[in-house]
Fold Dihydrofolate synthase/folylpolyglutamate synthase.
Amino acid sequence: MSAAPAALPPVEDIFARLLALHPKLIDLSLERMQRVLERLGHPERRLPPVIHVAGTNGKGSTVAFMRAVLEAAGKRVHVYTSPHLVRFNERIRLAGTLVDDATLTEALSRAEAANEGAPITFFEITTAAALLLFAEVPADVLLLEVGLGGRLDATNVIEAPLVSVITPVSIDHVDFLGETVAAIAGEKAGILKRGVPAVIARQPAEALKVIERQAARLAVKLAVMGEHFQAHEESGRLVVADEDGLLDLPRPRLVGPHQIGNAGLAVEALRVAGQRDPALRLPPAAFEEGMRQASWPARLQRLGPGPLTQRAPAGVDIWLDGGHNAAGGQALAAALADLEDRVSRPLVLIVGMLGTKDSGTFLAPFAGLAREVIAVPVPGEHKGQPPEAVAAAAAVHGISASTAPSVAAALEGLATFPVAPAPRVLIAGSLYLAGAVLGENGSLPD
């Protein structure tokens, strides 16, 4: 007689049931959220002041900078981000601490009971549970990141945030948001609320035009980077200037030229928040400390010693990033070029991508910079591109390419790398791949 299968932990058991509530993983709508939130007593109306963040790239980094600054000022900060890298708990930070399994299980159970088995997506029902927790645990502010798009995203049930933020908009998720930058910008601009100020990153002209048109309809005062405020690097420092004056801050801890813009956006969003809520007027010292302390896993994260990195030959410099679209490729290539200028090493990319992504546009900026691309599958049940397809896309751009069955195998294969010094390695192409790498290396986000 065979042994009975081991029981799932309570939280994993709930996840399995919630995933079965809707035939699609993504089905953009607000109706299901509004229904379940009503049955939960409208927690979305009982939240701390909310800073709502949409955009294609840089949302997580911008939130990380804001959180670091607020916590440096002694504020209790709720944070909601997605997707997670290793554990679902990473998505929900309650007053500075990742939600524990018992608290998460209890909130999910309440949301599940309120839903009464009706169709609802996994992101919607888990967002409802998160809002329930955010409403019941005291905090000074909630940093709320959009999951996908904005207009019909499950987070867009917030009626009056303190500030809306839109990070850079570019092509991504075309199956759900549209095939043009203008169409995608229209979805992102859907988070704008009447009379609520918005802070906007530098945008392509067609995206900014759409955002400005929506803002005009809703009497939204915009602060647009490059027009109403400035953020740039000067003498190794971050300088942010607006109508309230100039802040001369340490260079952001997060690596890459693109993080200057993300940090500047975060600083301006907090300054605007402070104009609306005196309790969030922060001293310059908090902004300084926040720039030094901000962290965000899998965003040009240098991997330390672990079971995975030890598979590489001695001296290999290993970095990890979840970038996966054209704009992400451009930002990463610029960051790696900056690293090359500081310390020259041959660059090797280990890349795994989902089937919904365009590997060619992601890899194009690395032409002339990367010595080799090693394509690998994305672990797990995700619909990844065949490594051969990724390698072929690299070859189109003149980058030498090969395949390996895993990241570990790719790192081991560097033992035969023909060029000295030891290479710099960037593992990228998918947040799912990044999460698997962190898990395998024992580098768990906290």
User: Anything to note?
Assistant: The chain has a mean pLDDT of 94.
